Amino acid sequence: MTDPKTDLKLLALDSEDLDVISATTQDGVVRVPDMGFAQADHRFALLMNRYAWEIGADNARSKGQRKRAALHFDRVNGVKVAGIDLNAQEGVLELLDIRFEPQEEPAGTIELRFAGGGTVRLDVECIEARLQDLGAAWAAKAKPEHAP
Questions:
Q1: pLDDT band at 4 (very low <50, low <70, confident <90, very high)
Q2: Is residue 17 in some structural domain?
Q3: Whole-angstrom distance between the N-terminal and C-terminal Cα of the chain?
Q4: Contact of 73 with 128, CB cutoff 8 Å
Q5: Do you find a cis peptide bond into 106, omega within 30 degrees of 0?
Q6: 148 in any annotated domain
Q7: Helices in the chain by DSSP H: which ranges?
Q8: Which structural domain, as residue segments, surrounds residue 113?
Q9: Average pLDDT, stretch 73-99?
Q10: Strand pairing partners for 2?
Q11: Neighbours of 147 (CB within 10 A)
Q12: Percent of the chain scored above 70 by pLDDT?
């Protein structure tokens, strides 16, 4: 039960664009084996079940919707992981946000921050990220809540 008109397809080429992708993927659930670095292609990619914030809950009983989505970053020269056990085949992470820290612009570091303190840091030539919904959608079990 998905409407292709509501499937997202976003491109980020600067930090403002990346902020939009960050907001769209907030509370995305990522399995540890569903992310990886293709060094030869200079690409870091992950699959997630993202909460569809742009759809929201259509009534008081609805908890909203989750969608399967792919996110990848191009022009990645290196990846550093902290606080995440990459061998945890059943490990699940909750994405909090994505930030860009410029160095010698347009180069910099993109940081994916996860609940519990885990991070993935991408050393990039420039910002080039793509998010695309993959069509699968289902009712969310709960709407993510955040303290004010």
A1: very low
A2: yes
A3: 33
A4: yes
A5: yes
A6: no
A7: 15-25
A8: 4-55+63-139
A9: 96
A10: none
A11: 3
A12: 91
User: Could you tell me if residue 145 is inside a domain?
Assistant: no
* C-alpha Rg value of the chain to the nearest Å: 15
Q: Report residue 21 as tokens.
A: 């992708």
| Tokens read off for 97 | 């946000």
**8-state DSSP, 116:** T
* Degrees to nearest 5, angle at CA 53 with 117 and 138: 100
Between CA 131 and CA 47, with CA 72 as vertex, the angle to 5 degrees is 75
* Whole-Å CA distances, 31 to 43, 67, 132, 148: 18, 14, 17, 27
Residue 128 near residue 111 (C-beta atoms within 8 A)? no
Residue 118 domain-assigned? yes
Report the predicted TM-score, pTM, of the whole model to 2 decimal places: 0.90
Number of neighbours of residue 36 by Cβ within 10 angstroms:
14
* Residues sharing a CB contact under 8 Å with residue 8, sequence separation 6 or more, in sequence order: 24, 54, 67, 69, 131, 132, 133
